[in-house]
Write a structure and sequence with these properties.
The chain is an alpha+beta fold. The protein has two helices and six strands, in the order βββαββαβ. α1 crosses α2.
Length: 144
């Protein structure tokens, strides 16, 4: 059984100016990632943006949750592939926010189709990061 609370630490360091890239690192991994303000926000692009990391956190939490459920249920499959699209919009007060995320989920080589669909749906409802955000989440499941 997992012990709570758990703590995950990260750090970032940057010089001034929206055109400069910076490094960010999780304290649990030796290497970091190059970050940048995306061109959509008048930055240079060329690095991961906070928006990139946000959508990646959502989809990879789903992947991790599904992998645990599939393993514990002994569901055999060949590959799980997800293509995600994050919509950044303005809320009713005009503030930008992560409004919607579409997850196009492909599970290939599943031997138990109905069980696979059930586990995909369960993972979409059980992922702690997905459950921690206000972003609308839309899943499209394709099982073969």
């Amino acid at each position: 059984m997992n012990k709570y609370p758990m703590f995950f630490k990260a750090r970032a360091e940057s010089s001034a100016g929206i055109q400069s890239l910076w490094d960010s690192q999780s304290m649990s991994v030796d290497s970091g990632v190059r970050m940048a303000i995306p061109a959509e926000f008048e930055g240079p692009g060329g690095g991961f943006s906070p928006e990139d990391l946000y959508v990646m956190a959502l989809q990879n939490c789903f992947v991790a949750t599904f992998k645990v459920f599939a393993e514990k249920s002994r569901l055999a499959y060949e590959k799980l592939r997800i293509e995600s699209e994050l919509t950044v919009d303005r809320d009713e007060h005009g503030r930008p926010w992560m409004a919607r995320c579409l997850f196009n989920v492909h599970l290939e080589g599943a031997e138990q189709i109905e069980n696979a669909k059930r586990l995909l749906a369960r993972a979409s409802e059980s992922c702690m990061i997905l459950n921690s955000v206000k972003t609308e989440k839309v899943f499209e499941f394709h099982v073969s």
